[in-house]
């Protein structure tokens, strides 16, 4: 599967393997992560500021709480809420469209829109379908919302970043625009997607790339995760700008990631256009509770999750409220927890990567997350983006 159109018309059904074929490493310039974490009683999402910047520049705040009480009760009673059901982070079947260089999946009901996804550095398109905990949750949330999911892959197969940096060896705009045309020509009508709203969603370098497509490609809305994007990206559009853009930043993002909430806010202000509204969501740190890892990672048992929590507490990695004290990318917390997290069908490297993704999200620095995704989707699709 390549990110560019190879001119070959074809597709094949892909049943996800029990483990990703290529384990990702760290991240050169990646992402953001997660959804509702559950614990032995009730886990609250808490208050998260949502900054809204519209034509008048008004700023409001809202809060959101988790409604995971039923799942939390099951976990507190030692009963897995996923018994007899699919774990929300389990693999998702997908199709491959060779001519456009995309992977795609359809919702169980009549589609109400199409989400085009762009991964971050060190990730692959297939990780939105293979069991990478937070990536798969994003895909499942989009499908549950009635959106078809179409995933592109970057040309640079070494760093796997999109061609948005000065050092990038390849450009991705032309291959993606060609791929979009091929997918529209060969699949949209056949799959019942013609005329539906199109949302473009990118993560880290993929989010930066989405801002480069704004004004170049027709889209109904854009969602940029953990990236401030291209400076001045909306000033000289070749096609109509989307009516709305949604942004998600992580509260701990700062420094070299260039995606802190303040940096994203500055980018929004710099690219405010009369015909385009912006709204920013900010993800907050989450606690590592006794059953968090069982809830976040398909294949981790309740007992394994509890033991990992105990090790984290004993090792001094958690605060009194069970928040991760220091950046897990810079401590040995993964090394301490890994021995109790053996998962059938996974290599140690794969388990390490899954654990890393979840810990990074809990700490809330540059990771994937499905936090707020349902409301961001509704914000972008509301009244087909009429102002």
Summary, kept brief:
The protein is an alpha/beta fold.
Give the mean pLDDT.
Answer: 82
Q: How large a portion of the residues is in β-strands, by DSSP E?
A: 5-15%
Order of strands across the main sheet: 1-3-4-6-5-7-8-9-10-2
Q: What overall form do the CA principal axes indicate?
A: globular
Structural class: alpha/beta
Distance between the termini: 39 Å
Using DSSP, what is the number of strands? Answer: 10
* Most strands sheet: 10 strands, mixed
CATH topology-level fold name of the domain at 47-61 and 99-284 and 373-387? Rossmann fold
What is the top-level CATH class of the domain at 47-61 and 99-284 and 373-387?
Alpha Beta
Continuous helix count: 10
> How much helix is in the residues?
25-40%
Element-level helix/strand string: EEHEEEHEHEHEEHEHHHHH
Which spans of ≥5 residues are poorly predicted at pLDDT below 50? 1-68
CATH architecture of the domain at 47-61 and 99-284 and 373-387: 3-Layer(aba) Sandwich
Radius of gyration: 20 Å
Keywords: Membrane, Transmembrane, Transmembrane helix
Region (Disordered): 1-22
Transmembrane segments: 31-51
What brief labels describe this structure?
27% helix, 14% strand, ten-stranded mixed sheet, alpha/beta, disordered N terminus, Rossmann fold, 387 residues
Can you describe this structure?
This protein has about 375 residues and is of the alpha/beta class. Helix content is about 25%, strand content about 15%. The protein contains ten helices and ten strands. A ten-stranded mixed sheet has the order 1-3-4-6-5-7-8-9-10-2, sandwiched between helices. Helix 5 links the parallel strand 9 and strand 10. The chain starts with 10 loop residues before the first strand and ends in a 6-residue tail after the last helix. Keywords: Membrane, Transmembrane, Transmembrane helix. InterPro entries: AB_hydrolase_fold.
């Amino acid at each position: 599967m390549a990110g560019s159109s190879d001119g070959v018309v074809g597709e094949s059904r892909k049943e996800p393997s029990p483990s990703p074929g290529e384990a990702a490493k760290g991240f050169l310039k990646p992402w953001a992560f997660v959804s509702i974490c559950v614990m032995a009683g009730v886990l609250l999402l808490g208050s998260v500021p949502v900054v809204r910047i519209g034509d008048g520049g008004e700023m409001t705040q809202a809060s959101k709480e988790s409604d995971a009480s039923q799942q939390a009760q099951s976990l507190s009673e030692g009963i897995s809420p996923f018994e007899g059901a699919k774990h929300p982070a389990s693999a998702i079947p997908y199709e491959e469209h060779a001519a456009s260089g995309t992977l795609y999946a359809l919702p169980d009901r009549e589609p109400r829109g199409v989400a085009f996804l762009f991964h971050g550095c060190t990730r692959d398109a297939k990780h939105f379908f293979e069991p990478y905990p937070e990536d798969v949750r994003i895909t499942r949330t989009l499908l549950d919302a009635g959106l078809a999911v179409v995933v592109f892959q970057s040309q640079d197969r070494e760093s796997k970043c999109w061609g948005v940096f000065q050092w990038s060896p390849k450009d991705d705009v032309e291959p993606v625009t060609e791929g979009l045309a091929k997918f529209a020509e060969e699949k949209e009508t056949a799959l019942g997607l013609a005329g539906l709203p199109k949302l473009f969603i990118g993560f880290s370098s993929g989010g930066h790339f989405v801002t480069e497509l704004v004004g170049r490609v027709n889209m109904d809305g854009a969602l940029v995760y953990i990236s401030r994007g291209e400076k001045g990206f909306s000033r000289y559009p070749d096609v109509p700008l989307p009516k709305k853009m949604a942004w998600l930043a992580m509260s701990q993002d700062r420094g070299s990631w260039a995606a802190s909430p303040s940096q994203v806010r500055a980018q929004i202000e710099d690219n405010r256009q009369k015909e385009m509204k912006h709204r920013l969501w900010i993800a907050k740190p989450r606690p590592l509770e006794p059953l968090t890892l069982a809830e976040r990672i398909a294949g981790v048992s309740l007992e394994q999750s509890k033991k990992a929590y105990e090790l984290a507490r004993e090792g001094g990695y958690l605060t009194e409220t069970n928040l991760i004290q220091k950046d897990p990318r810079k401590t040995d917390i993964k090394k301490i927890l890994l021995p109790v997290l053996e998962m059938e069908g996974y290599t140690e490297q794969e388990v390490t990567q899954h654990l890393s993704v979840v810990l990074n999200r809990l700490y809330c620095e540059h990771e994937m997350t499905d936090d707020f995704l349902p409301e961001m989707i509704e914000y972008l699709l509301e009244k087909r983006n009429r102002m």
